[in-house]
Design goal:
With 134 residues, the chain is mostly beta strands. It is built from no helices and nine strands. It has strands spanning 24-35, 38-49, 52-53, 63-64, 67-78, 84-91, 99-104, 114-118, 124-131. It has a five-stranded antiparallel beta sheet, with no helix packed on it.
């Protein structure tokens, strides 16, 4: 929070800082099963980011609402000392879209609008093969 806004126009004591959400939350859950030929694992990690201001005066048009992100992964490890691993995974599996910075374009001569640079909001899926060398 702003402690001393000095003479900055439109900024008050207590305003939220730029890019500093009040709350962030990260978590990871993993479960593994031992099989006769290796180890099978399921994992999910998630993140919550509270609303973010992109203006020191806390203009509501320049505030990104809070959002959740969810990823998942399934693995199978096998071989001597679990040396080999095959995994399939998904990132942003809920297709969450959010803005990076929001920028006020008024006064630039290009019109009065807010620029939003969104992430793709596209879920990504893939696979990985890993060999661990000791």
């Amino acid at each position: 929070r702003v402690d001393n806004p000095g003479s900055v126009v439109g900024v008050s004591k207590g305003d939220r800082l730029i890019g500093a959400p009040d709350v962030t939350f990260n978590g990871l859950v993993r479960k593994e099963w031992q099989l006769p030929s290796g180890t099978f694992g399921l994992q999910s990690d998630f993140r919550y980011v509270d609303s973010i201001d992109y203006d020191l005066g806390n203009n509501p048009k320049l505030r990104e609402p809070g959002y959740w992100m969810l990823n998942a992964r399934a693995t199978y490890s096998f071989g001597p000392a679990q040396r080999y691993e095959v995994a399939i995974w998904g990132q942003n599996i809920t297709g969450t879209t959010y803005c990076g910075p929001r920028i006020n374009n008024s006064g630039t001569g290009f019109g009065d609008f807010i620029l939003c640079y969104p992430n793709a909001g596209t879920p990504f899926y893939g696979g990985t093969v890993t060999v661990h060398f000791d």
